[in-house]
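pls design
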């Protein structure tokens, strides 16, 4: 797919689709609740559809209409053995969260996904689940999917996680629903807390204090009505576009601004960006706002430490933004970027360099010297949706033509991305 420099400022309003993390969880927790869970603004991205497909195979009836998803939950002990391998597609979130649930089931499950999933690290969940007594193995013995999970008795543990990962934390907490006692997870920095917030609404006994989340088993979960807020990780592309295409002014409606997800807004502010939050709404634990983004000059900054988990999926777009900022931007403490759908440090450095950027890979991030004009290039997305969307935006402020290979991968998290972009970029 080809992109060229925007010929005019970007003007208009965009409503981005539902949050991927929250959509996954609504199906999973809805399946484990008794009664029906009704979800509106559900993200129909390929990853969340993988989650739906897995739970259907586990015996859960899920109805999809134009406006809503209805999950006919069967309670914590209501899942049934699948007749074949579960397919998690490209979704790390599906893989890791469902593994925690499957560890507590009285049947054996095998699960597998695409090539990217088969190279993503699963030892980070195999280790804590095994410590809880789970019988989980990497079938090829390489610490990756395919995984096999057999029935076993689970024990509550306190787990000190080395990584700030909501997938690891959620996996352990979900297994904790089936343990014989209390389970808690402490992480080095607080990662997104959608599991804690949503599970509590469903009736779980779950609490958070600082970077520790604790679950006490024994409660039943009850079906809920969930309105999924817009995904800030998807809004990120329009935020960046509005900031780097001169003269632009974009209103992005109904974006989730949970403090464990809003790091991009904080970093943009540090870079001197003009972003105003309007119509703030506290929601049901998941706050939202409309974001008014205006183009203007940006300057470099340092991004590291506790902010990293709050913008982990937005770091590719931060690296792109940094190319249009004066001075140096340092992204550090972001080793996790290496184990996403692609190695996002290498892939960003390679592709930005091809466009003329001055960028260096480090062990845990990137250093970007901003202010050097970019030009079009052939960009290999490595079938990573975040990379494809980042470069579609970068192209809008770069000379000449940019071609993105595998551009269709945006369907993972944002199927209508190019249509929404073309409404703004004429
Ligand atoms: O829990 C979640 O929904 C997610 C957690 C993050 O992954 P990690 O937990 O691996 O950091 C993030 O990158 C992913 O897109 C979604
Ligand atoms: C890393 C991501 O997702 P997952 O881990 O669910 O594949 C992402 O969406 O950027």
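designed seq:
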């Amino acid at each position: 797919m080809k992109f060229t420099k925007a010929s005019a400022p970007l003007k208009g309003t965009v409503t981005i689709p539902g949050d991927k993390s929250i959509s996954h969880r609504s199906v999973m927790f809805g399946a484990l609740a008794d009664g029906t869970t009704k979800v509106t603004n559900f993200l129909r991205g390929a990853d969340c559809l993988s989650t739906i497909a897995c739970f259907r195979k586990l015996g859960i009836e899920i109805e999809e209409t134009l406006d809503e998803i209805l999950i006919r939950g069967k309670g914590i002990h209501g899942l049934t053995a699948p007749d074949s391998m579960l397919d998690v597609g490209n979704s790390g979130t599906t893989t890791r969260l469902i593994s925690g649930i499957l560890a507590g089931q009285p049947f054996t499950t095998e699960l597998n996904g695409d090539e990217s999933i088969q190279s993503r690290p699963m030892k980070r969940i195999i280790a804590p689940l095994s410590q809880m007594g789970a019988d989980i193995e990497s079938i090829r013995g390489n610490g990756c999917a395919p995984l096999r999970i057999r029935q076993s008795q689970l024990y509550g543990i306190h787990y000190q996680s080395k990584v700030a990962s909501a997938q690891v934390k959620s996996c352990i907490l979900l297994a904790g629903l089936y343990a014989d006692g209390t389970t808690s997870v402490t992480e080095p920095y607080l990662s997104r807390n959608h599991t804690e917030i949503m599970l509590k609404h469903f009736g779980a006994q779950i609490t958070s204090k600082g970077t520790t989340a604790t679950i006490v088993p024994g409660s039943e979960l009850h079906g809920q009505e969930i309105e999924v807020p817009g995904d800030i990780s998807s809004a990120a592309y329009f935020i960046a576009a509005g900031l780097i295409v001169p003269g632009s002014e974009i209103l992005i409606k109904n974006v989730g601004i949970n403090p464990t997800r809003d790091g991009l807004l904080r970093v943009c502010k540090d870079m001197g960006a003009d972003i105003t939050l309007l119509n703030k709404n506290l929601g049901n634990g998941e706050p939202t706002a409309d974001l008014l983004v205006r183009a203007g000059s940006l300057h470099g900054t340092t991004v590291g430490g506790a902010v990293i988990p709050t913008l982990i999926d937005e770091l590719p777009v931060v690296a792109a933004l940094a190319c249009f900022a004066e001075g140096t931007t340092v992204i550090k403490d972001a080793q996790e970027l290496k184990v996403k759908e692609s190695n996002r440090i290498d892939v960003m450095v390679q592709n930005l360099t091809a466009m003329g950027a001055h960028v260096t890979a480090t062990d845990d991030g990137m250093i970007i010297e901003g202010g050097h004009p970019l030009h079009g290039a052939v960009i290999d997305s490595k079938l990573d949706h975040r990379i494809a969307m980042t470069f579609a935006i970068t192209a809008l402020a770069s000379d000449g033509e940019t071609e993105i290979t595998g551009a269709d991968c945006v369907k993972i998290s944002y199927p209508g991305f190019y249509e929404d972009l073309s409404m703004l970029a004429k």
